[in-house]
Specification:
The complex is a heterodimer.
Chain A (H helix, E strand, L loop, with lengths): L4 H42 L1 H15 L3 H14 L6 H26 L3 H9 L4 H31 L11 H12 L2 H30 L4
Chain B lengths: L1 H41 L2 H15 L3 H15 L5 H26 L3 H9 L4 H31 L11 H12 L2 H30 L4
Helix pairs in contact in B: 1-2, 1-4, 1-7, 1-8, 2-4, 3-4, 4-6, 5-6, 6-8, 7-8
The chains are: A mainly alpha, B mainly alpha.
Amino acid sequence: MPFEIPLFIRSVPILLEGLTITLILSILAILLSAFWGVILLLSMRAGKFSNAFARVYIEIMRNTPIIVIMFFMFFGSGVIGFPLSGFIAGLLSLVLQNGAYVAEIYRAGIQGVSNRQTEAGLALGFMPKRTFLLIILPQAIRKVIAPLGTQGVMIIKDTAIVATISVAEMTFQARLLADRTAAVFEIFTALAIIYIVLTSIFNLGIRVIERKYGYKN
Amino acid sequence: MELIINSIPLLFKGLQNTIIMSLVATLLATVLGILFAFIQIFSHFFIKAVVEVLLYLIRGVPLLVLLFMMYYSLLYSGLQVDPLIGGSVVIGVYFAAFMSEVFRGGILSIAKGQWEAGYALGLRTHQVVGSILIYQALRIIGAPFINTVIMIIKGTSLVAIIGVTELTFVGRQIVERTLEPFLIFSLVALIYIVMCYSLSLLAQHLERKIGYVN
């Protein structure tokens, strides 16, 4: 099977048709996961009961494959007579799972700030809440930039999986094209390259932010 | 209730393939991961650059895309390869790119003094690695290694899309016949959670028991 460059080039614009949906899905999923992670973090800090609840939720989400969550949402919502579109079901699944990962990243970031910082804040006469807000949190935010970036790349890559619940994003388009043309190697190579470009741009952005605001020893 | 009792033997049949694929992929990812890690640390500039670029490219692509690429390429090239085997190999190679980071991080995080001590005692590089560093590295690597294995187990669920009868695939088949998605997919999820969570408990245990205290 020789690699035919014209086929490769011709498949790119068709794949780019799906890029819009991939991009919208990625951006929404990343933003909402970051937000959902904050809520989970708050409930972990709110009290014993809500902490236990959040922990169970996080473990369930982290230990279930994303595709099972998507199937659960997509096919489940159809059966109870409240059908979600593939896009909404996929977005919801991505946010539910990655929010759990992000909450763990936040927690680790806060834990990673030395205890002495809290002690110093209290010794200087700050109230515990203000110690957290003014001293711990700014340092924790700097620490979570890099792991959040890694998680963002995971989210971008996981958007490919919504192709299985018939959302017409890039991977879905590639599959359609592959079924029609048999130029499979060219098509999927083009698809892979687009994903690499996408994740590279994202990585670059994270690195710029990290260089500017990240934690320096 | 009856549905659960009837589904469980079917799901367990699918589970067998999930476990086989996870084991094969883990083995492959570990062997290749160690190899890549050593190349990245010890080899000469050119090979190192090639491997690093390759791993970067692999890490930037969704696993599903690689699985499709393998599946369709085999389909059209006429090679008779069981998607179960093909899937295991793709997953193994894919996660080797992540494993190599685990091993590289483990080896590099060992204090430089250990290297120098080894050399000062007159050992060669492979002797320093084999008799000093490896034991320290294993303590650091334990937990992240298990986390990657959990990612591998979850990754095998994607092979359902290319028609391997593993756990997720069987779950979906049962749903198509019974129209009970909540119940069946909850069962499927539960099986994954039991597998992955017990591994992650093991990771926590390892970290407490033999973890590297710094």
